[in-house]
Write a structure and sequence with these properties.
Layout (H helix, E strand, L loop, with lengths): L10 E8 L2 E9 L3 H17 L5 H11 L6 E9 L4 E7 L3 E6 L2 E4 L5 E2 L3 E2 L5 E4 L5 E5 L20 H12 L8 E5 L2
Antiparallel strand pairs: 1-2, 2-3, 3-4, 4-9, 5-6, 5-10, 7-8, 10-11
Helix pairs in contact: 1-2
Length: 184
């Protein structure tokens, strides 16, 4: 929930994992309040019902399922531990970032709104190095941050990293979600 917004959050997130695979989704229902929350909640439900699909197919399923809502930005990342890759598909302004060994890689999300206007859904695959950290966030978080400003934070628990980013980089006038994932 944003620092100053009094209604229900239109952002959402979901994760799922088994021993070889981890899925993470961040969704931002358009606007604020109950109608934005409806789109985010519906996207979360579709995610949970379709965990065997690839990220692009899941984004496509969400796009079709939330047509009756005002729509949402949505991104899904799949960490494949045996292949040591991250596959990412996104529509709208959900940011995805892989941090590893002093370098970062931003992941590609296409313009559009799931449930409304989507011109392209495509997956991109990136390396998943040992010790990598995945950060995904909605546009309620300022995108220009650096964990270098927080010595040692990258080695902390994902919930602490997410909390620090939310505290220090929330815009304050929009719903804001940060999802952080690591593998052991």
């Amino acid at each position: 929930m944003p620092k100053e917004y009094p209604g229900p959050s239109g952002d959402g997130w979901a994760t799922w994992s088994d021993p070889g695979r981890c899925l993470a989704m961040v969704v931002d229902g358009l606007g604020h309040g109950p109608l934005a929350k409806e789109a985010a909640d519906e996207a979360e439900a579709v995610f949970k019902e379709n965990i065997r699909l690839s990220p692009a197919k899941m984004v496509e399923a969400i796009h079709h399922a939330i047509r009756h809502t005002r729509g949402a930005a949505v991104a899904i990342a799949e960490i494949n531990l045996s292949q040591r890759t991250v596959t990412f598909a996104g529509v709208g302004n959900i940011s995805g970032l892989i941090l590893a060994s002093e370098e970062s890689k931003s992941m590609v999300s296409y313009n559009g709104t799931a449930g409304a206007q989507v011109t392209r859904i495509r997956e991109f695959t990136y390396p998943w190095p040992d010790g990598a950290t995945l950060i995904m966030h909605s546009d309620g978080i300022k995108s220009h941050f650096s964990l270098d400003d927080y010595p040692g934070l990258i080695r902390k628990h994902p919930s602490l990293i997410a909390g620090v980013l939310w505290r220090d980089y929330s815009r304050g006038n929009d719903d804001a979600t940060v999802l952080v994932a690591k593998t052991r």
